[in-house]
Amino acid sequence: MIGWEDVFKVLSAMAPLYFALVLGYGSVKWWKIFSTEQCDAINKLVCYFTLPLFTFEFTSHIDPFHLNFPFIAADAISKLVIVLVLAFWAKCSSKGSYCWSITSFSLSTLTNALVIGVPLAKVMYGQMAVDLVVQGSVIQAIIWLTMLLFVLELRRTGLNLVASRESSSSDDDGHGKATQMVGEGGKDVEGGAMEVEERRSNSHKPSFKLLMKKVWLKLVANPNSYACIIGLAWAFVAKRWHIEMPDIMEGSILIMSKAGIGTAMFNMGIFMALQEKLIACGATLTIIGMVLKFIAGPAAMAIGSIAMGLHGDVLRVAIIQAAVPQSITSFIYAKEYGLHPEVFSTAVIFGAIISLPILVAYYAALEFIVH
């Protein structure tokens, strides 16, 4: 059973996150150091430099020849279950939405496993659990975060093309405003304006070929698209032929990658300071986000784990790691692409605060249920 010393270890791992968060919040709210434009520039620094180098660094150190494929397959099945449910909801419900399907998928499946999941797994189940969580994080970076990046870029590029065509065919101020709302940088808008734009876009829909060409060019220019793939490729080479990365190269990567999580949390603090309310998305969306994170995600993982025949501690780790708080990367992407960043910031911050008692409750319950 987890003791107070183990709880302290987990809290010690989480505390630095909130130190960076408070510094970011204070730099704007109290000390007025950064302007709005400078805050956008900080988000781009995190999105295009520190985050991809952090992703490359942790991916390049795994052992790809000793992966737990049933565990990885269970994780994939759980995410496909969520995708199918959201696709059904988007198509069959009057409240269904492509944008909210993307957000709901991220909330229920993408976890902050490296920062919170690893120390928690170590105190609960030891090194075996740590290895599984790291493997899950690498697969999340390679497959699921890359897919998230693709659908976000597809959405923004499509809306920009539609807005561009509308503005060129009409002299309306409303169309000009639409162009501004979906412009480069992905500013967040209120009142579901993005949803309105998507429903108005049918008559101005760009060709699939043009759309995919533009999306491809955007993704090629985005280091997040291939940082984890290059890292995994290096891991294969390094483990197969026992090659070590040259010191000059490793040092160059580490000097930026070590700032990845810190600058991401600092950036989130800045975002919070720019909002009118501390819980920017409101109580209702906060509750929905917590339900998706701590109930829907683990439930889907339980389905995937049972389907793959996982048992014992591996099954327990699979379910608990699915309940780990929200991925910080998902907030960075949401802010960059203007898709519900207020929901993700609340999910990361509030989720991390309430996660420890929830995860301990899962741990205790699984000790009795899983054999």
Summarize the structure.
This protein is mostly helical. Helices cover 78% and strands 0% of the residues.
Which percent range fits the helix content?
A: over 70%
Mean pLDDT: 86
For the record, give the distance between the C-alpha atoms at the N and C termini, rounded to a whole number. 16 Å
Which descriptor suits the 3D outline?
Answer: globular
**What is the number of domains?**
1
- In total, the number of strands is 0
* Radius of gyration from CA coordinates: 21 Å
**Structural class assignment:** mainly alpha
DSSP strand content = under 5%
* Major sheet details: none
How many helical elements? Answer: 16
The residue ranges in which pLDDT falls below 50 over 5 or more consecutive positions are 175-191
Order of helices and strands: HHHHHHHHHHHHHHHH
Family: Belongs to the auxin efflux carrier (TC 2.A.69.1) family.
Transmembrane segments: 7-28, 69-90, 97-120, 132-152, 215-236, 248-266, 278-308, 346-365
Function: May act as a component of the auxin efflux carrier.
Subcellular location: Membrane
